[in-house]
Amino acid sequence: MHLFADIRSTVLDALTQMQAEGALPAGLDFANVAVEPPRDAAHGDMATNAAMVLAKAAQMQPRAIADVLAAKLLADPRITAADVAGPGFLNLRLAPMVWQGIVQAVLTQGTDFGRIDLGKGLKVNVEFVSANPTGPMHVGHVRGAVVGDALANLLAFAGWDVTREYYINDGGAQVDVLARSAYERYREAHGLEPEIREGLYPGDYLVPVGEALKEKYGDSLLDKGEQVWLSDVRDFATQMMMDRIREDLAALGVQMDLYSSEKALYGTGKIEAAIQTLKGMDLIYEGVLEPPKGKEPEDWEPRVQTLFRSTAHGDDVDRPVQKSDGGWTYFAPDIAYHYDKVQRGFDQLIDIFGADHGGYVKRMKAAVSALSGGRVPLDIKLIQLVKLWKNGEPFKMSKRAGTFVTLRDVVEMAGADVTRFIMLTRKNDVALDFDFDKVLEQSKDNPVFYVQYANARVNSILRKAREAGVDVSDAALAAADLTRLDHAAEIGVAKKIAEWPRLVEIAARGNEPHRVAFYLYELASDLHGLWNRGNDDVSLRFLQEDTATSQAKIALARAVGVVICSGLGILGVTPAEEMR
Protein backbone atom coordinates (compact mmCIF):
# COMPACT_ATOMS: atom_id res chain seq x y z
CA MET A 1 0.00 0.00 0.00
CA HIS A 2 1.56 3.25 -1.23
CA LEU A 3 -0.82 5.90 0.08
CA PHE A 4 0.83 8.84 -1.67
CA ALA A 5 0.71 6.99 -4.99
CA ASP A 6 -2.92 6.05 -4.34
CA ILE A 7 -3.95 9.65 -3.67
CA ARG A 8 -1.98 10.80 -6.73
CA SER A 9 -3.99 8.31 -8.81
CA THR A 10 -7.16 9.83 -7.34
CA VAL A 11 -5.95 13.30 -8.35
CA LEU A 12 -5.16 12.10 -11.88
CA ASP A 13 -8.59 10.48 -12.15
CA ALA A 14 -10.20 13.77 -11.10
CA LEU A 15 -8.16 15.69 -13.67
CA THR A 16 -9.16 13.22 -16.39
CA GLN A 17 -12.80 13.68 -15.38
CA MET A 18 -12.35 17.45 -15.59
CA GLN A 19 -11.08 17.02 -19.15
CA ALA A 20 -14.08 14.89 -20.05
CA GLU A 21 -16.39 17.58 -18.70
CA GLY A 22 -14.56 20.37 -20.54
CA ALA A 23 -13.20 21.96 -17.34
CA LEU A 24 -9.68 21.24 -18.60
CA PRO A 25 -8.42 21.03 -22.20
CA ALA A 26 -7.44 17.65 -23.61
CA GLY A 27 -3.86 16.62 -24.27
CA LEU A 28 -2.31 17.84 -21.02
CA ASP A 29 0.76 16.06 -19.68
CA PHE A 30 0.19 14.93 -16.09
CA ALA A 31 3.74 13.56 -15.59
CA ASN A 32 4.79 16.38 -13.26
CA VAL A 33 1.69 16.27 -11.10
CA ALA A 34 2.88 15.33 -7.62
CA VAL A 35 1.32 14.48 -4.28
CA GLU A 36 3.65 14.91 -1.31
CA PRO A 37 3.71 16.02 2.32
CA PRO A 38 3.17 19.80 2.67
CA ARG A 39 6.14 21.86 3.76
CA ASP A 40 4.23 22.82 6.90
CA ALA A 41 2.36 19.93 8.55
CA ALA A 42 -0.17 22.44 9.91
CA HIS A 43 -1.44 22.94 6.36
CA GLY A 44 -2.66 19.36 5.97
CA ASP A 45 -1.63 15.77 5.37
CA MET A 46 -0.78 16.00 1.68
CA ALA A 47 -0.44 18.65 -1.00
CA THR A 48 -0.67 18.54 -4.78
CA ASN A 49 0.87 20.93 -7.30
CA ALA A 50 -1.54 19.86 -10.05
CA ALA A 51 -3.06 23.29 -10.68
CA MET A 52 0.35 24.98 -10.70
CA VAL A 53 2.01 22.66 -13.22
CA LEU A 54 -0.99 22.47 -15.57
CA ALA A 55 -1.99 26.15 -15.63
CA LYS A 56 0.36 27.34 -18.38
CA ALA A 57 -0.42 24.51 -20.80
CA ALA A 58 -4.14 24.79 -20.03
CA GLN A 59 -3.99 28.61 -20.41
CA MET A 60 -5.95 28.93 -17.16
CA GLN A 61 -5.42 30.53 -13.77
CA PRO A 62 -4.05 27.97 -11.25
CA ARG A 63 -6.71 28.78 -8.67
CA ALA A 64 -9.48 28.18 -11.20
CA ILE A 65 -8.12 24.66 -11.77
CA ALA A 66 -7.57 24.10 -8.05
CA ASP A 67 -11.11 25.12 -7.09
CA VAL A 68 -12.70 22.59 -9.44
CA LEU A 69 -10.18 19.90 -8.53
CA ALA A 70 -10.85 20.43 -4.80
CA ALA A 71 -14.58 19.86 -5.30
CA LYS A 72 -13.88 16.66 -7.21
CA LEU A 73 -11.52 15.31 -4.54
CA LEU A 74 -13.97 15.96 -1.71
CA ALA A 75 -16.20 13.28 -3.22
CA ASP A 76 -13.61 10.72 -2.04
CA PRO A 77 -14.53 9.62 1.52
CA ARG A 78 -10.85 9.43 2.45
CA ILE A 79 -10.44 13.18 1.87
CA THR A 80 -12.07 15.38 4.52
CA ALA A 81 -10.71 18.76 3.40
CA ALA A 82 -9.23 20.22 0.22
CA ASP A 83 -8.07 23.81 0.70
CA VAL A 84 -6.61 26.00 -2.02
CA ALA A 85 -3.58 27.94 -0.77
CA GLY A 86 -1.53 30.76 -2.27
CA PRO A 87 -1.51 30.89 -6.06
CA GLY A 88 -3.01 27.42 -6.44
CA PHE A 89 -1.50 24.73 -4.24
CA LEU A 90 -4.08 22.29 -2.94
CA ASN A 91 -3.72 21.02 0.64
CA LEU A 92 -5.55 17.83 1.57
CA ARG A 93 -6.59 16.37 4.90
CA LEU A 94 -7.38 12.68 5.21
CA ALA A 95 -9.83 10.91 7.47
CA PRO A 96 -8.54 9.04 10.57
CA MET A 97 -9.67 5.76 9.00
CA VAL A 98 -6.98 6.20 6.35
CA TRP A 99 -4.19 6.26 8.92
CA GLN A 100 -5.75 3.44 10.91
CA GLY A 101 -5.89 1.48 7.65
CA ILE A 102 -2.13 1.98 7.23
CA VAL A 103 -1.54 0.10 10.50
CA GLN A 104 -3.73 -2.75 9.30
CA ALA A 105 -1.91 -2.83 5.94
CA VAL A 106 1.49 -3.17 7.65
CA LEU A 107 0.28 -6.01 9.86
CA THR A 108 -1.23 -7.77 6.86
CA GLN A 109 1.70 -7.31 4.48
CA GLY A 110 4.52 -7.61 7.01
CA THR A 111 7.95 -6.58 5.77
CA ASP A 112 6.57 -6.50 2.22
CA PHE A 113 4.86 -3.22 3.18
CA GLY A 114 6.73 -0.57 1.26
CA ARG A 115 8.03 -2.99 -1.35
CA ILE A 116 7.36 -1.47 -4.77
CA ASP A 117 7.82 -2.43 -8.41
CA LEU A 118 9.62 0.73 -9.47
CA GLY A 119 12.40 -1.28 -11.14
CA LYS A 120 9.99 -3.59 -12.97
CA GLY A 121 12.56 -6.38 -13.01
CA LEU A 122 15.17 -4.37 -14.95
CA LYS A 123 18.73 -5.62 -14.51
CA VAL A 124 21.05 -3.32 -12.60
CA ASN A 125 24.74 -3.91 -11.90
CA VAL A 126 26.12 -2.34 -8.73
CA GLU A 127 29.91 -2.37 -8.75
CA PHE A 128 31.42 -1.44 -5.40
CA VAL A 129 34.51 -1.79 -3.22
CA SER A 130 36.75 -2.95 -6.12
CA ALA A 131 39.85 -2.45 -3.97
CA ASN A 132 43.32 -3.27 -5.25
CA PRO A 133 44.19 -6.81 -4.11
CA THR A 134 47.37 -5.59 -2.46
CA GLY A 135 46.35 -5.71 1.19
CA PRO A 136 43.48 -5.87 3.64
CA MET A 137 40.57 -3.52 3.20
CA HIS A 138 40.83 -0.19 5.01
CA VAL A 139 38.25 2.08 6.61
CA GLY A 140 37.66 3.94 3.34
CA HIS A 141 36.58 0.67 1.75
CA VAL A 142 34.17 0.08 4.64
CA ARG A 143 31.98 2.99 3.69
CA GLY A 144 31.97 2.10 0.00
CA ALA A 145 31.12 -1.51 0.82
CA VAL A 146 28.23 -0.52 3.09
CA VAL A 147 26.81 2.06 0.67
CA GLY A 148 27.04 -0.36 -2.25
CA ASP A 149 25.50 -3.27 -0.38
CA ALA A 150 22.68 -1.18 1.11
CA LEU A 151 21.98 0.35 -2.29
CA ALA A 152 21.78 -3.14 -3.81
CA ASN A 153 19.32 -4.16 -1.07
CA LEU A 154 17.27 -1.01 -1.64
CA LEU A 155 17.02 -1.52 -5.39
CA ALA A 156 16.03 -5.16 -4.95
CA PHE A 157 13.32 -4.04 -2.49
CA ALA A 158 12.12 -1.53 -5.11
CA GLY A 159 11.80 -4.09 -7.88
CA TRP A 160 15.15 -4.28 -9.67
CA ASP A 161 17.05 -7.47 -10.54
CA VAL A 162 20.36 -6.65 -8.84
CA THR A 163 23.88 -8.00 -9.37
CA ARG A 164 26.60 -7.08 -6.89
CA GLU A 165 29.98 -7.03 -8.59
CA TYR A 166 33.58 -6.55 -7.48
CA TYR A 167 36.13 -5.50 -10.10
CA ILE A 168 39.54 -6.85 -9.12
CA ASN A 169 42.20 -4.29 -10.09
CA ASP A 170 44.85 -6.91 -10.75
CA GLY A 171 46.11 -5.71 -14.11
CA GLY A 172 48.34 -2.81 -13.11
CA ALA A 173 51.82 -2.28 -11.74
CA GLN A 174 50.57 -2.40 -8.12
CA VAL A 175 50.28 -6.20 -8.22
CA ASP A 176 53.94 -6.43 -9.24
CA VAL A 177 54.75 -4.33 -6.16
CA LEU A 178 52.66 -6.80 -4.14
CA ALA A 179 54.67 -9.70 -5.55
CA ARG A 180 57.99 -8.06 -4.68
CA SER A 181 56.74 -7.25 -1.17
CA ALA A 182 55.52 -10.81 -0.66
CA TYR A 183 58.84 -12.17 -1.91
CA GLU A 184 60.65 -10.26 0.86
CA ARG A 185 58.32 -11.92 3.40
CA TYR A 186 59.13 -15.24 1.73
CA ARG A 187 62.82 -14.53 2.36
CA GLU A 188 61.93 -13.58 5.94
CA ALA A 189 60.17 -16.93 6.39
CA HIS A 190 63.54 -18.53 5.59
CA GLY A 191 65.25 -16.56 8.34
CA LEU A 192 66.64 -13.84 6.09
CA GLU A 193 66.29 -10.12 6.73
CA PRO A 194 63.52 -8.71 4.49
CA GLU A 195 64.44 -5.68 2.41
CA ILE A 196 61.27 -3.59 2.64
CA ARG A 197 62.62 -0.77 0.53
CA GLU A 198 60.71 2.38 -0.31
CA GLY A 199 57.75 1.70 -2.57
CA LEU A 200 57.02 -1.79 -1.22
CA TYR A 201 54.12 -2.65 1.09
CA PRO A 202 55.42 -2.74 4.69
CA GLY A 203 52.44 -4.23 6.55
CA ASP A 204 52.73 -7.39 8.64
CA TYR A 205 49.71 -8.78 6.78
CA LEU A 206 52.14 -10.15 4.17
CA VAL A 207 53.99 -12.30 6.72
CA PRO A 208 51.47 -15.19 6.34
CA VAL A 209 51.82 -14.87 2.55
CA GLY A 210 55.57 -15.32 2.84
CA GLU A 211 55.10 -18.36 5.07
CA ALA A 212 52.58 -19.85 2.62
CA LEU A 213 55.04 -19.28 -0.23
CA LYS A 214 57.70 -21.11 1.74
CA GLU A 215 55.32 -24.01 2.32
CA LYS A 216 54.53 -24.26 -1.39
CA TYR A 217 57.91 -23.53 -2.97
CA GLY A 218 60.37 -24.44 -0.23
CA ASP A 219 63.67 -22.66 -0.91
CA SER A 220 63.45 -23.04 -4.70
CA LEU A 221 62.84 -19.32 -5.27
CA LEU A 222 65.63 -18.03 -3.04
CA ASP A 223 68.41 -16.08 -4.73
CA LYS A 224 66.56 -16.21 -8.06
CA GLY A 225 65.91 -13.21 -10.26
CA GLU A 226 62.37 -11.90 -10.39
CA GLN A 227 62.05 -13.06 -13.98
CA VAL A 228 61.84 -16.55 -12.44
CA TRP A 229 59.36 -15.94 -9.66
CA LEU A 230 57.48 -12.68 -10.29
CA SER A 231 54.51 -14.15 -12.19
CA ASP A 232 53.92 -17.07 -9.81
CA VAL A 233 54.35 -15.01 -6.65
CA ARG A 234 52.08 -12.30 -8.04
CA ASP A 235 49.26 -14.77 -8.74
CA PHE A 236 49.76 -16.54 -5.40
CA ALA A 237 49.81 -13.31 -3.35
CA THR A 238 46.87 -11.83 -5.24
CA GLN A 239 44.77 -14.92 -4.54
CA MET A 240 45.64 -14.83 -0.83
CA MET A 241 44.76 -11.15 -0.64
CA MET A 242 41.45 -11.75 -2.39
CA ASP A 243 40.68 -14.54 0.09
CA ARG A 244 41.36 -12.04 2.88
CA ILE A 245 39.18 -9.41 1.21
CA ARG A 246 36.31 -11.90 0.89
CA GLU A 247 36.66 -12.70 4.60
CA ASP A 248 36.68 -8.98 5.45
CA LEU A 249 33.54 -8.39 3.40
CA ALA A 250 31.84 -11.36 5.05
CA ALA A 251 32.68 -9.89 8.47
CA LEU A 252 30.81 -6.79 7.37
CA GLY A 253 27.89 -8.85 6.07
CA VAL A 254 28.63 -8.28 2.37
CA GLN A 255 28.38 -11.07 -0.19
CA MET A 256 29.25 -10.36 -3.81
CA ASP A 257 27.47 -12.09 -6.68
CA LEU A 258 30.43 -11.81 -9.01
CA TYR A 259 34.14 -11.04 -8.99
CA SER A 260 35.58 -9.80 -12.30
CA SER A 261 39.29 -9.52 -13.06
CA GLU A 262 40.98 -6.63 -14.84
CA LYS A 263 43.85 -8.96 -15.71
CA ALA A 264 41.43 -11.20 -17.60
CA LEU A 265 40.83 -8.38 -20.08
CA TYR A 266 44.44 -8.38 -21.28
CA GLY A 267 45.47 -10.78 -24.04
CA THR A 268 41.86 -11.82 -24.68
CA GLY A 269 41.00 -9.23 -27.31
CA LYS A 270 38.34 -7.60 -25.11
CA ILE A 271 40.13 -4.27 -24.84
CA GLU A 272 40.82 -4.24 -28.57
CA ALA A 273 37.17 -5.11 -29.31
CA ALA A 274 35.85 -2.26 -27.18
CA ILE A 275 38.21 0.26 -28.78
CA GLN A 276 37.38 -1.06 -32.24
CA THR A 277 33.67 -0.61 -31.51
CA LEU A 278 34.28 3.02 -30.61
CA LYS A 279 36.43 3.41 -33.71
CA GLY A 280 33.51 2.17 -35.79
CA MET A 281 31.51 5.08 -34.36
CA ASP A 282 34.26 7.52 -35.42
CA LEU A 283 35.05 8.14 -31.74
CA ILE A 284 38.72 7.05 -31.81
CA TYR A 285 41.36 9.20 -33.47
CA GLU A 286 45.04 10.11 -33.34
CA GLY A 287 45.67 13.52 -31.85
CA VAL A 288 47.49 15.77 -29.42
CA LEU A 289 45.79 16.96 -26.24
CA GLU A 290 45.97 20.50 -24.93
CA PRO A 291 48.21 21.02 -21.86
CA PRO A 292 46.47 20.09 -18.60
CA LYS A 293 45.19 23.01 -16.56
CA GLY A 294 47.91 24.50 -14.38
CA LYS A 295 50.78 23.31 -16.58
CA GLU A 296 53.21 25.88 -17.90
CA PRO A 297 54.00 25.54 -21.62
CA GLU A 298 57.63 24.57 -20.92
CA ASP A 299 56.42 21.72 -18.71
CA TRP A 300 54.23 20.27 -21.43
CA GLU A 301 55.48 17.81 -24.03
CA PRO A 302 52.91 17.40 -26.78
CA ARG A 303 52.74 13.90 -28.21
CA VAL A 304 50.45 12.01 -30.53
CA GLN A 305 48.16 9.59 -28.73
CA THR A 306 45.14 7.46 -29.53
CA LEU A 307 42.19 9.40 -28.14
CA PHE A 308 38.54 8.69 -27.35
CA ARG A 309 36.27 11.49 -28.53
CA SER A 310 34.52 11.57 -25.14
CA THR A 311 33.45 15.20 -25.65
CA ALA A 312 30.86 13.85 -28.10
CA HIS A 313 29.16 12.27 -25.06
CA GLY A 314 29.35 15.05 -22.51
CA ASP A 315 32.97 15.01 -21.31
CA ASP A 316 35.06 18.17 -20.95
CA VAL A 317 38.05 16.93 -22.98
CA ASP A 318 38.88 13.90 -25.08
CA ARG A 319 40.70 11.10 -23.28
CA PRO A 320 43.73 8.97 -24.22
CA VAL A 321 43.17 5.22 -24.47
CA GLN A 322 46.56 4.21 -25.90
CA LYS A 323 49.94 5.71 -25.19
CA SER A 324 52.48 6.70 -27.81
CA ASP A 325 54.50 3.57 -26.97
CA GLY A 326 51.52 1.35 -27.84
CA GLY A 327 50.57 0.45 -24.26
CA TRP A 328 47.03 0.87 -23.00
CA THR A 329 46.19 3.67 -20.58
CA TYR A 330 44.38 2.85 -17.33
CA PHE A 331 41.17 4.05 -18.99
CA ALA A 332 41.22 1.46 -21.79
CA PRO A 333 40.57 -1.69 -19.69
CA ASP A 334 37.88 0.19 -17.76
CA ILE A 335 36.16 0.93 -21.06
CA ALA A 336 36.37 -2.76 -21.97
CA TYR A 337 35.06 -3.83 -18.57
CA HIS A 338 32.03 -1.55 -18.80
CA TYR A 339 31.45 -2.66 -22.40
CA ASP A 340 31.36 -6.21 -21.08
CA LYS A 341 28.68 -5.20 -18.57
CA VAL A 342 26.64 -3.60 -21.33
CA GLN A 343 26.97 -6.76 -23.42
CA ARG A 344 25.82 -8.86 -20.47
CA GLY A 345 22.47 -7.17 -20.80
CA PHE A 346 22.31 -4.81 -17.84
CA ASP A 347 19.74 -2.05 -18.15
CA GLN A 348 21.48 0.21 -15.65
CA LEU A 349 25.01 0.47 -14.23
CA ILE A 350 26.05 1.94 -10.89
CA ASP A 351 29.66 2.40 -9.79
CA ILE A 352 30.66 3.20 -6.21
CA PHE A 353 34.04 4.97 -6.34
CA GLY A 354 36.30 6.66 -3.82
CA ALA A 355 36.35 10.45 -3.77
CA ASP A 356 39.73 10.42 -5.54
CA HIS A 357 37.97 9.15 -8.69
CA GLY A 358 36.08 12.40 -9.23
CA GLY A 359 37.94 13.10 -12.46
CA TYR A 360 36.88 9.73 -13.80
CA VAL A 361 33.13 10.32 -13.72
CA LYS A 362 32.52 12.17 -16.99
CA ARG A 363 34.86 10.05 -19.08
CA MET A 364 33.35 6.80 -17.83
CA LYS A 365 29.81 8.03 -18.40
CA ALA A 366 30.81 9.11 -21.89
CA ALA A 367 32.22 5.66 -22.66
CA VAL A 368 29.10 3.83 -21.47
CA SER A 369 26.85 6.26 -23.33
CA ALA A 370 28.76 5.62 -26.55
CA LEU A 371 29.04 1.84 -26.19
CA SER A 372 25.38 1.38 -25.28
CA GLY A 373 24.02 3.84 -27.82
CA GLY A 374 22.70 5.90 -24.93
CA ARG A 375 20.52 3.00 -23.78
CA VAL A 376 22.26 2.16 -20.49
CA PRO A 377 22.57 4.93 -17.87
CA LEU A 378 25.61 4.92 -15.60
CA ASP A 379 25.38 6.51 -12.16
CA ILE A 380 28.63 7.00 -10.27
CA LYS A 381 28.52 7.58 -6.53
CA LEU A 382 31.65 9.07 -4.97
CA ILE A 383 32.38 8.08 -1.38
CA GLN A 384 33.95 10.76 0.77
CA LEU A 385 36.49 10.04 3.48
CA VAL A 386 35.79 8.60 6.92
CA LYS A 387 37.63 10.19 9.84
CA LEU A 388 38.09 7.90 12.84
CA TRP A 389 38.10 9.20 16.41
CA LYS A 390 38.60 7.65 19.83
CA ASN A 391 38.98 9.31 23.23
CA GLY A 392 38.59 12.67 21.52
CA GLU A 393 41.59 12.16 19.26
CA PRO A 394 42.13 10.89 15.72
CA PHE A 395 42.41 7.10 15.72
CA LYS A 396 45.85 6.04 14.55
CA MET A 397 46.94 3.52 11.96
CA SER A 398 46.90 -0.24 12.39
CA LYS A 399 50.26 -1.90 12.99
CA ARG A 400 49.03 -4.96 11.14
CA ALA A 401 48.35 -2.94 8.01
CA GLY A 402 51.37 -0.69 8.29
CA THR A 403 49.77 2.49 6.98
CA PHE A 404 46.03 2.43 7.60
CA VAL A 405 43.16 1.29 9.81
CA THR A 406 41.69 -1.93 8.46
CA LEU A 407 38.07 -2.87 7.95
CA ARG A 408 38.58 -5.70 10.43
CA ASP A 409 39.83 -3.21 13.05
CA VAL A 410 36.62 -1.19 12.75
CA VAL A 411 34.28 -4.20 12.79
CA GLU A 412 36.05 -5.80 15.76
CA MET A 413 35.83 -2.57 17.78
CA ALA A 414 32.30 -1.43 16.88
CA GLY A 415 30.51 -4.47 15.48
CA ALA A 416 29.18 -4.98 11.97
CA ASP A 417 25.66 -3.65 12.69
CA VAL A 418 26.84 -0.42 14.30
CA THR A 419 29.45 0.08 11.59
CA ARG A 420 26.95 -0.38 8.78
CA PHE A 421 24.32 1.95 10.24
CA ILE A 422 26.74 4.74 11.11
CA MET A 423 28.28 4.61 7.63
CA LEU A 424 24.83 5.48 6.26
CA THR A 425 24.11 8.43 8.54
CA ARG A 426 25.54 10.86 6.01
CA LYS A 427 25.07 11.15 2.26
CA ASN A 428 27.86 9.38 0.38
CA ASP A 429 29.43 12.61 -0.93
CA VAL A 430 29.76 14.15 2.55
CA ALA A 431 32.73 13.37 4.83
CA LEU A 432 31.82 11.28 7.87
CA ASP A 433 33.24 11.26 11.41
CA PHE A 434 33.23 7.83 13.05
CA ASP A 435 33.78 8.26 16.78
CA PHE A 436 34.17 4.88 18.48
CA ASP A 437 33.01 6.30 21.80
CA LYS A 438 29.87 7.95 20.44
CA VAL A 439 28.75 5.11 18.17
CA LEU A 440 28.65 2.77 21.16
CA GLU A 441 26.99 5.09 23.68
CA GLN A 442 23.35 4.54 24.62
CA SER A 443 21.72 7.89 23.93
CA LYS A 444 19.44 9.69 21.52
CA ASP A 445 22.54 11.21 19.93
CA ASN A 446 23.55 7.75 18.72
CA PRO A 447 21.18 7.00 15.81
CA VAL A 448 21.83 3.26 15.66
CA PHE A 449 21.11 2.86 19.38
CA TYR A 450 18.01 5.04 19.12
CA VAL A 451 16.54 2.97 16.26
CA GLN A 452 17.48 -0.37 17.83
CA TYR A 453 16.03 0.78 21.17
CA ALA A 454 12.72 1.54 19.45
CA ASN A 455 12.57 -2.00 18.07
CA ALA A 456 13.52 -3.42 21.46
CA ARG A 457 10.72 -1.38 23.05
CA VAL A 458 8.22 -2.84 20.59
CA ASN A 459 9.36 -6.33 21.49
CA SER A 460 9.10 -5.47 25.19
CA ILE A 461 5.50 -4.36 24.67
CA LEU A 462 4.70 -7.62 22.90
CA ARG A 463 6.32 -9.72 25.64
CA LYS A 464 4.42 -7.96 28.42
CA ALA A 465 1.16 -8.27 26.49
CA ARG A 466 1.65 -12.00 26.03
CA GLU A 467 2.35 -12.35 29.74
CA ALA A 468 -0.95 -10.55 30.38
CA GLY A 469 -2.76 -13.02 28.14
CA VAL A 470 -3.31 -10.65 25.21
CA ASP A 471 -3.23 -12.18 21.72
CA VAL A 472 -0.62 -10.14 19.86
CA SER A 473 -0.26 -12.25 16.74
CA ASP A 474 -0.21 -10.12 13.61
CA ALA A 475 -3.53 -11.61 12.51
CA ALA A 476 -5.19 -10.67 15.82
CA LEU A 477 -3.71 -7.17 15.80
CA ALA A 478 -4.75 -6.59 12.17
CA ALA A 479 -8.30 -7.54 13.13
CA ALA A 480 -8.35 -5.23 16.16
CA ASP A 481 -10.67 -2.24 16.40
CA LEU A 482 -8.17 0.31 15.10
CA THR A 483 -10.70 3.16 15.36
CA ARG A 484 -9.51 3.32 18.96
CA LEU A 485 -6.31 4.88 17.62
CA ASP A 486 -7.81 8.36 17.65
CA HIS A 487 -5.31 10.50 19.56
CA ALA A 488 -3.33 13.02 17.48
CA ALA A 489 -0.05 11.53 18.72
CA GLU A 490 -1.08 8.04 17.60
CA ILE A 491 -2.30 9.30 14.24
CA GLY A 492 1.02 11.11 13.91
CA VAL A 493 2.94 7.85 14.22
CA ALA A 494 0.66 6.21 11.66
CA LYS A 495 1.33 9.11 9.28
CA LYS A 496 5.07 8.56 9.61
CA ILE A 497 4.58 4.85 8.85
CA ALA A 498 2.60 5.81 5.74
CA GLU A 499 5.64 7.68 4.40
CA TRP A 500 7.70 4.47 4.18
CA PRO A 501 6.71 3.35 0.64
CA ARG A 502 7.22 6.89 -0.65
CA LEU A 503 10.60 7.05 1.05
CA VAL A 504 11.61 3.78 -0.61
CA GLU A 505 10.61 5.19 -3.98
CA ILE A 506 12.52 8.45 -3.51
CA ALA A 507 15.63 6.69 -2.18
CA ALA A 508 15.62 4.13 -5.00
CA ARG A 509 15.14 6.75 -7.71
CA GLY A 510 18.12 8.70 -6.41
CA ASN A 511 20.27 5.68 -5.48
CA GLU A 512 20.44 7.11 -1.95
CA PRO A 513 20.30 4.43 0.76
CA HIS A 514 21.21 6.95 3.47
CA ARG A 515 17.62 8.21 3.26
CA VAL A 516 16.49 4.93 4.83
CA ALA A 517 18.70 5.52 7.88
CA PHE A 518 17.35 9.08 8.24
CA TYR A 519 13.76 7.87 8.03
CA LEU A 520 14.27 5.11 10.58
CA TYR A 521 15.65 7.62 13.06
CA GLU A 522 12.58 9.84 12.58
CA LEU A 523 10.19 6.89 12.95
CA ALA A 524 11.99 5.71 16.10
CA SER A 525 11.81 9.24 17.49
CA ASP A 526 8.04 9.31 16.95
CA LEU A 527 7.63 5.99 18.78
CA HIS A 528 9.82 7.12 21.70
CA GLY A 529 7.83 10.34 21.85
CA LEU A 530 4.54 8.45 22.07
CA TRP A 531 6.00 6.17 24.76
CA ASN A 532 7.15 9.17 26.79
CA ARG A 533 3.75 10.88 26.52
CA GLY A 534 2.27 7.75 28.03
CA ASN A 535 4.21 8.48 31.20
CA ASP A 536 1.92 11.46 31.81
CA ASP A 537 -1.21 10.41 29.92
CA VAL A 538 -2.22 6.86 30.85
CA SER A 539 -4.65 6.72 27.90
CA LEU A 540 -1.61 6.65 25.59
CA ARG A 541 0.04 3.65 27.21
CA PHE A 542 0.20 0.58 25.05
CA LEU A 543 -1.18 -1.77 27.68
CA GLN A 544 -4.68 -0.85 28.89
CA GLU A 545 -7.16 -2.60 31.16
CA ASP A 546 -9.43 -3.13 28.17
CA THR A 547 -8.03 -5.89 25.90
CA ALA A 548 -9.53 -4.44 22.72
CA THR A 549 -7.94 -1.06 23.34
CA SER A 550 -4.63 -2.72 24.21
CA GLN A 551 -4.64 -4.62 20.93
CA ALA A 552 -5.29 -1.48 18.91
CA LYS A 553 -2.43 0.41 20.57
CA ILE A 554 -0.10 -2.58 20.39
CA ALA A 555 -0.98 -2.90 16.68
CA LEU A 556 0.46 0.57 16.16
CA ALA A 557 3.67 -0.31 18.00
CA ARG A 558 3.99 -3.58 16.13
CA ALA A 559 3.55 -1.75 12.81
CA VAL A 560 6.43 0.52 13.76
CA GLY A 561 8.54 -2.54 14.56
CA VAL A 562 7.73 -4.17 11.22
CA VAL A 563 8.82 -1.09 9.28
CA ILE A 564 11.97 -0.69 11.37
CA CYS A 565 12.88 -4.33 10.71
CA SER A 566 12.21 -3.84 7.00
CA GLY A 567 14.37 -0.72 6.87
CA LEU A 568 17.19 -2.29 8.87
CA GLY A 569 17.05 -5.23 6.47
CA ILE A 570 17.78 -2.85 3.61
CA LEU A 571 20.68 -1.37 5.56
CA GLY A 572 21.96 -4.87 6.32
CA VAL A 573 21.57 -4.40 10.07
CA THR A 574 20.17 -7.07 12.40
CA PRO A 575 17.24 -5.70 14.47
CA ALA A 576 17.80 -5.83 18.24
CA GLU A 577 15.23 -7.90 20.13
CA GLU A 578 16.30 -6.33 23.42
CA MET A 579 18.90 -3.87 24.67
CA ARG A 580 21.44 -4.93 27.26
TrEMBL record:
SUPFAM superfamilies: Anticodon-binding domain of a subclass of class I aminoacyl-tRNA synthetases (SSF47323), Arginyl-tRNA synthetase (ArgRS), N-terminal 'additional' domain (SSF55190), Nucleotidylyl transferase (SSF52374)
GO molecular function: arginine-tRNA ligase activity; ATP binding
Main enzyme class: ligase
GO biological process: arginyl-tRNA aminoacylation
Signal peptide: none
Catalytic activity, reaction form: tRNA(Arg) + L-arginine + ATP = L-arginyl-tRNA(Arg) + AMP + diphosphate
Keywords, sorted A to Z: Aminoacyl-tRNA synthetase, ATP-binding, Cytoplasm, Ligase, Nucleotide-binding, Protein biosynthesis
Superkingdom, natural source: Bacteria
Positions of the Arginyl tRNA synthetase N-terminal domain: 5-94
Keyword ATP-binding: yes
Gene Ontology cellular-component terms listed: cytoplasm
EC number: 6.1.1.19
Main location: cytoplasm
Family per record: Belongs to the class-I aminoacyl-tRNA synthetase family.
PANTHER family, sorted: ARGININE--TRNA LIGASE, CYTOPLASMIC, ARGINYL-TRNA SYNTHETASE
UniProt-recorded name of the protein: Arginine--tRNA ligase
Organism ancestry: Bacteria, Pseudomonadati, Pseudomonadota, Alphaproteobacteria, Rhodobacterales
Gene that this sequence comes from: argS
